[in-house]
UniProtKB/TrEMBL annotation:
The active site is at D67 (proton acceptor), D136 (for ring-opening step), H138 (proton acceptor), E143 (for ring-opening step). One of its GO terms (biological process) is glucosamine catabolic process. SUPFAM superfamilies: NagB/RpiA/CoA transferase-like. The keyword Hydrolase applies. One of its GO terms (cellular component) is cytoplasm. This is Glucosamine-6-phosphate deaminase. The lineage of its organism: Bacteria, Bacillati, Actinomycetota, Actinomycetes, Micrococcales. The record marks S146, R153, K155, T156 as: Part of the allosteric site. Pathway: Amino-sugar metabolism; N-acetylneuraminate degradation; D-fructose 6-phosphate from N-acetylneuraminate: step 5/5. Belongs to the glucosamine/galactosamine-6-phosphate isomerase family. NagB subfamily. It is an enzyme of class 3 (hydrolase). Keywords: Allosteric enzyme, Carbohydrate metabolism, Hydrolase. Gene3D superfamilies: 3.40.50.1360. Its EC number is 3.5.99.6.
Amino acid sequence: MEVVIVESPERAGRLVADAVGELIARKPDAVLGVATGSSPEAVYRELANRVQAGELSLKDARAFMLDEYVGLLPEHPQRYRAVIDRQLVEPTDIQAENVHGPDGTACDLPKACADYEQAMRDAGGVDLQILGVGSDGHVAFNEPGSSLASRTRLKTLTRQTRQDNARFFGDDLEAVPKHCLTQGVGTLMEARHLVLLAFGQAKAEAVHHMVEGPVSAMWPATALQFHPHTTVILDESAASRLQLASYARQAWESKPKWQGL
């Protein structure tokens, strides 16, 4: 893993937007993997700023979402497709029809998952996948104990994850869905570049296990250690438990800037 420690989420947002811009310059119809939650918000703000300034265009890009709640109506503001529409589709020029997510309202959920996997394969796979990590080490909604070879499927959310997400539902735990559709760990590992963002002290334990701990299904994000191109971007608080934090700083500072992420 390449670990980058930055002073703020805004700085992280600029770095990831740089990587997206370089990818789009090479491949205008690139496939982005997009995540929800608070971690990627700075990335979407920076992409929107660049599109609005005429410095970047996503009009030919395609995007696939990580996951979706099961059972939320299309008009629900916390449905993940609604969140991605607000944060990415509306403020940029990416085409709404080029943004795809698993169908959490489908009558046949296993078929919806299989269809989603096929759609990603048909698109040629994800070029750059944006990720966050849960305080319990989940990545996408692959909760502790998930198979590290898993594919897109129905998952039951842990109480910890629902408590973490209750802030988006007015701090009402009972309003947070109990199930979701999520890309599996095995699915994520097929993306060509993984970029994971984590900020705040609450993520420090998960980051420590993910970067420096043994690979374990109890901390699903540890599987990213096996990926050939994983970039982990942290603020000081999220990096506070890393034993090799000083080495990571030195490695990043000495890296030729033209190499990018």
